[in-house]
Fold these 4 entries.
Entry 1:
Amino acid sequence: MRGGIIYILNICKYNKFMIDNKAFYKLSYGLYVISSISGGKKNGQIANTVFQITSDPARIAVSINKQNLTHEYIKNSKLIGVSTLSIETPLEFVGKFGFKSGRTTDKFSGVSYKTGESGVPIVLDNTASWFELKVEKEIDIDTHTVFIGKVLNSELIKDIDPMTYAYYQDVKRGKSPQTSPTHIANKNNPVKDMPKYQCSVCGYIYDPAVGDPDSGIEPGTLFENVPNSWECPVCGVSKGKFKPLV
Ligand code: FE
């Protein structure tokens, strides 16, 4: 009987906990290209969990999914390149490093980069600043590893606002917030109520009011009028992979 009461008390205690997924939306992040090297091969990927841990010496933490090729490379070489993307970064560039695998494509093809003193590649395109890290510690967190790296070199390339994850999600991917200049500019646009289309592969939303200026599609272009040669600016699939957003 006594055990039963404790059991009920425990249930009540644990019921006080509740995870509201929307709470996570208020965490803020940047958008970065994380690069590494292994056996002479280089790879890079997009990550948003990059943050400075200490200042003297300067250390930066980077969280990477264990399934990613870049994770394997970092584990092998203990070297990391971090490029902070600027707010002007086109979606195609994010898609190239974010939605394609280095196992099947050379992500550095056509991309401007340099080789750091340690040998790690550092992406320069659309980069506001970069860091070259030597991994000092690794923390195993189930699906991810948090790599803590000492900063070997760093440089501010362009004094421009960095891309934030929120800006990327809300503005660059077409889900323009009401406070954005894009939204205000389109207030009286006759296409603002026309259907949006969503990529079935990566979730990118094509909004006719916003268009895809990075690919030459002007704001105000209905999805039907987008050329068939147009590809998803994030993951690169064809227009046919888009479905009306209901
Ligand atoms: Fe896509």
Entry 2:
Amino acid sequence: MIGRLNHVAIAVPDLEAGVRLYRDVLGADVSDRQDLPAHGVGVVFVALPNSKIELVTPLDEASPIADFLRRNPAGGLHHVCYEVDDIRAARDQLVLRGIRILGDGEPKLGAHGLPVLFLHPKDCGGTLIEIEEVRPKIV
Ligand code: CO
């Protein structure tokens, strides 16, 4: 069901420091910052030859990333995102297999403007998993 690894998201308390690490120390291409108020986050994308890293920081205290940083003040691995062909079909199969979907279960547009869902980490080995339909039929 799951396809390619689309990205790994890392929560950072200081986005500029994260950019300096990935651009100046690790030597990767890093995008300009994008703020996504609907998600409560600011993001940059680190382009790798075979995938992407998303550095994500909260825009305010109500952001879900702010919660994560209260538990992990230095930041850290937040989620991994796998591509699926049909997000609603994948969701329905996963629910039948006992996986809970976060939120209302309906796909939302994620940071790349594509439909995404998040799976409950307690059902997924302690990892927050995002699934993304990379070639949406109907958004
Ligand atoms: Co993501």
Entry 3:
Amino acid sequence: MNHPIDDAALNLMLSELRLPTIKSLWPQFTAQADREGWPAARLLAALTEHEIADRARRRFQRHLREAHLPGGKTLDSFDFNAVPMLSKAHVMALSAGDRWLDEGANVILIGPPGAGKSHLATALGLALIERGYRVLFTRTTDLTQRLQLARQELALEAAIAKLDKYHLLILDDFAYVTKDQAETSVLFELITARYEQRSLLLTANQPFGKWQSIFPDPAMTLAAVDRLVHRATIFELNVDSYRRRTALEHQRQRRAAAQPAASTDPAAAQ
Ligand code: ADP
Ligand code: MG
């Protein structure tokens, strides 16, 4: 019972089923199967496996594009020795996602400029995307602006709901929100909407005590901080700017290299 196969019709059906990998592989795979006498089930399994593997790769690429992460910042390239107060084990546990994202718990990174907050936030985001989670990285002022526009168009609730699809929303430079941005309190509404539902990762160069300018009034600041820190992991990166430190270290090495005689003089070592 050898029915002829209509290649064009098969390709159309595979497109309709959204199976692009099987569509591109089947001519080559079926030819090989015929040549080598594969059992039909083996051919089917091989094609299906390729589709699934490709689908995971496509999903990762899509999630990476939509996340808008700054490039080149990974956990591998983060020097944990430079931040002794930060537990690498704790960060690695967070990078697996799981419970804290399921519970909508938050992570807050506080430290001076250059301490590595954005790097660490980005690296965590990337690790989570690799685990299949969806992440959005945004400067807090940019997102605030977007939400304010939505509010003007009476679409704030919908704009906030659209962010629900992200398991993690990274709000970089949280404490940089300006006074006029604070007045509309869109950030407060975002925090309230995500509370215990969806996670936030904030970076800030100011400790909580200095967050009054982010919200319209002290009561709202208190309420916002209360929700944010409830079941949050808070890392304080109290270190000098990494860039400044590496620049100083390079300078020191250059100086040392320029004076080799002094350091190799046996008399000086006595
Ligand atoms: P912050 O957001 O705290 O101001 P960044 O994360 O932007 O600081 O760090 C400034 C620069 O220094 C970036 O290029 C970052 O990759 C690098 N950097 C900071 N801390 C580290 C670290 N511990 N290991 C490797 N690079 C770091
Ligand atoms: Mg930063």
Entry 4:
Amino acid sequence: MRKKIALIGCTGSIGRQVINVVRRYPDLFTITAMAANTGGDAFFEQVREIKPAFAVLRAEGERADVPAGVRFERGEKAFEEACAYSDADVVFVAVTGFAGLKAALLAVRAKKRAALANKECLVAGGDLLMRAAAESGAEIVPVDSEHSALWQCLSFDRGAKFSKLILTASGGALRDVPLDRLPEMTAKDALAHPNWDMGAKITVDCATMLNKGFEVIEAMHLYGAPFEKVEVVMHRESIVHSMVAFEDGAVLAQMSYPSMELPIQLALTYPERLAANVPPLDLAKLGTLHFSAPDPVRYPCFALALGCAKAGGDLPCALNAAGEVAVHAFLDGQIKYTQIAEIIEGVLSGMPPRPAESYALLEETDARARAAARSFLR
Ligand code: MG
């Protein structure tokens, strides 16, 4: 029996790699539903190749020609249907932004296994999502490379005991730029990631290490870890994707050359490991791996995110929203690189945390933080 996948966010970097895995193992997987926020030629090209039973564009717009046998719909209702698609075993949440939380909640409430490549669903709504999963019994599978590494070190058991989760961080594209030159850094500079090829927003988040702060929050939710049990260590080669320390002093690490296809594929095939498009690791050739402590002066966004991780409630949701506005303004050339942290700090200082008790409350926090962040742009 082929595993049926509902792919939410099919046109982005992760979505395209999910399709690569399905192309590699057509006898194991089939995509029955696919959805994207907005679609152009890329979306319809995918639909023509994959011919899912159900194809959705979330944005309203024109009708379009799709192959026979494909039901094509637009709009929010159709998007929601795809996220809880009845003829799917796995919902792969690869859509970007806050939409990921809605998608993940719908999948989990429909008792679908949810493979989470979207960070926002855990950062902004981790409390809510983990509660929903506990209630429905739905399984949550991590896709983010660090969290997949932790999961692998825990023998695919998110409930296993550990003494510490150790996330590795590359430091991003600007890690070696002298501090006094950071204000001049452009989007092009911040997008030149040394090890990973990813979307623009997340690549800037790697440069500021806001991304690593998000990942601390993700890890706390996925593995039920208190803040004190999550550690971050700088590791410039991105070979060790994360580590788990155990009670007896043993530390397990997962290593490979950087590739998102490995965690994406594993989320679909686990506990089995199948050949992936990753070359064998040549440690002798690598020679040396480096580790060091993060520098709070170079990475103020990371420090802000850790504050939100500790405070909890809806503060991580505000952090995510403020970060999105600030980073897009930076990518558009509206603000300096160093203003990303200033804007986030300004937004957070005006938002005392509230318990993250409902989707409606988080939506309101998200909107309020975005508006506050935009007010700093004027
Ligand atoms: Mg990651």
